[in-house]
Design a protein that fits this description.
Helices cover 33% and strands 24% of the residues. It has 401 residues and is α/β, with parallel strands linked by helices. It has two domains: 173 residues, Rossmann fold; 208 residues, 3-Layer(aba) Sandwich (Rossmann fold). The strands form six sheets. It has an eight-stranded mixed beta sheet with strand order 12-11-8-13-16-17-19-20, with helices on both faces. The relative contact order is 0.09. The mean pLDDT is 91. The structure holds cytidine-5'-triphosphate (CTP). Cytidine-5'-triphosphate binds next to helix 11 and strand 16.
Length: 401
């Protein structure tokens, strides 16, 4: 069922637009409300009257003046929806979305929304197979857009192949899956990840070997359980996770600012390998070789983000999880670190070079909490992330199916 769910349906200009009439009926039968938006091209295929009659709501049409109060209200519409569905998603609409265009109401809403987006492509088979469309598809998937179809079959243009829009009941099923709640639905989690870079001068910096792989996997696992994730990342090698809010930072001080402004949150996971020190006075110009004399760098201590967040009064997340990168006496050091920093859990790992953990794809962690040290077997970083996300969901009082 889709009781109480709000769908913003953007109808593109293709022959398959007629299927949206049936789609609206099926969605409403299941308790969803549908707010239709039409592109100018869509008006060639279906009438605003039929869409509004079936939706029981006004149809929003092309954008004339974004400064008009009523038009600004349209942008709000895209934010209150639970899901934005683009059907049919024509080759042109997909290209505009992939390119970040915002030159009419539909594309402006798609750029302004912070709601998950689903596209239902429909177009001529050659247009679907065209390298430009396939390229745009990869970009959109990378942006976290869900894609339904297209199906293969006889097409209205007389050709045969992939390009037919999915049937209304297939779209309804995909919408139901996309909107099904996870155990962390409604929870907000801040995750830090990657190294920080601490500048020496405009061309040099101090860094560490963190790839950001574990933090990225944690953000993805939390997202998969339904959490809204704010991912604060240093300049990490790992590809950014999709479907989360990304805040890129460079230094420890920037990371601290980003984390504090992302609060309040239900949980915080601090997986970043934050540089403990920065160069006390960063040189504004490149430090030159000075015959024989070696430069002397003086260090200053960076803010400890985990410790600071753990000690917050009002804004402290309900659950604060830190990591401990150790090379010896892992459990003893990590247990002391948990106490010193004031976090709830520490995931301790041995980052000695022979373990291959830092920069590798596996991790072997010990979870240290009030109930003691729990050793997890060595496993892939995404498996560690999945387990951790499930434990977080349990701790926040949501049962994991
Ligand atoms: N951390 C942080 N801010 C810092 C340093 C560390 O938020 N300036 C967080 C890390 O994200 C991690 C935890 O603190 O969750 C522990 O990091 P680690 O490097 O193991 O500990 P350090 O505090 O640096 O202690 P030490 O170097 O003495 O082991």
């Amino acid at each position: 069922m889709l009781t109480g769910k709000r769908i913003l349906l953007i109808v593109g200009g293709g022959i398959a637009a007629y299927k949206c009439l049936e789609l609206i009926r099926r969605l409403r039968e299941r308790g969803a409300s549908v707010t239709p938006v039409m592109t100018r091209a869509a008006e060639e295929f279906v009438t605003p009257l039929s869409l509004s009659a079936l939706a029981g709501e006004e149809v929003h049409q092309d954008l004339f003046d974004l400064t008009k109060e009523a038009e600004m209200g349209h942008i709000q519409l895209s934010r209150v929806a639970d899901l934005v569905v683009v059907a049919p998603a024509t080759a042109d609409l997909m290209a505009k979305m992939a390119g970040g265009h915002a030159n009419d109401l539909a594309t402006t809403l798609l750029m302004a929304t912070d709601t998950p987006v689903m596209i239902v492509p429909a177009m001529n088979v050659r247009m679907w197979e065209h390298s430009a469309t396939q390229r745009n598809l990869v970009v959109l998937q990378g942006d976290g857009v869900k894609v339904v179809g297209p199906n293969s079959g006889d097409m209205a243009c007389g050709e045969f192949g992939p390009g037919r829009m999915s049937e209304p009941m297939e779209i309804v099923a995909a919408i139901q899956t996309a909107l099904s709640d996870g155990p962390l639905t409604g929870k907000r989690v801040v995750v830090t990840s990657g190294p920080t870079h601490e500048p020496i001068d405009p061309v040099r910096y101090i860094a560490n070997r963190s790839s950001g792989a574990q933090g990225t996997a944690i953000a993805e696992a939390l997202r998969d359980l339904g959490a809204r994730v704010v991912f604060v990342t240093g300049p990490a090698e790992a590809a950014r996770p999709t479907g989360v809010e990304i805040v890129e930072v460079e230094t420890a001080r920037e990371m601290r600012e980003a984390v504090l402004s992302a609060l309040p949150a239900d949980a915080g996971v601090f997986a970043a390998a934050v540089a403990d020190w920065r160069v006390a006075s960063e040189s504004r110009s490149k430090i030159k070789k000075d015959k024989g004399a070696l430069p002397v760098l003086e260090f200053a201590e960076n803010p400890d983000i985990l410790a600071e967040v753990s000690k917050l009064q009002e804004q402290r997340p309900g659950l604060v999880v830190g990591f401990a990168a150790e090379t010896d006496d892992v459990v003893a050091h990590a247990t002391a670190k948990r106490k010193r920093k004031g976090c709830d859990w520490i995931l301790a790992n041995d980052v000695s070079p022979e373990t291959g953990i830092m920069g590798g794809s596996e991790n072997a962690v010990v979870l240290i909490s009030d109930s003691g040290a729990e050793e997890w077997p060595r496993m892939g970083k995404s498996e560690v992330a999945r387990r951790l996300a499930e434990r977080i969901a349990e701790a926040l009082g949501q049962s994991v199916p």
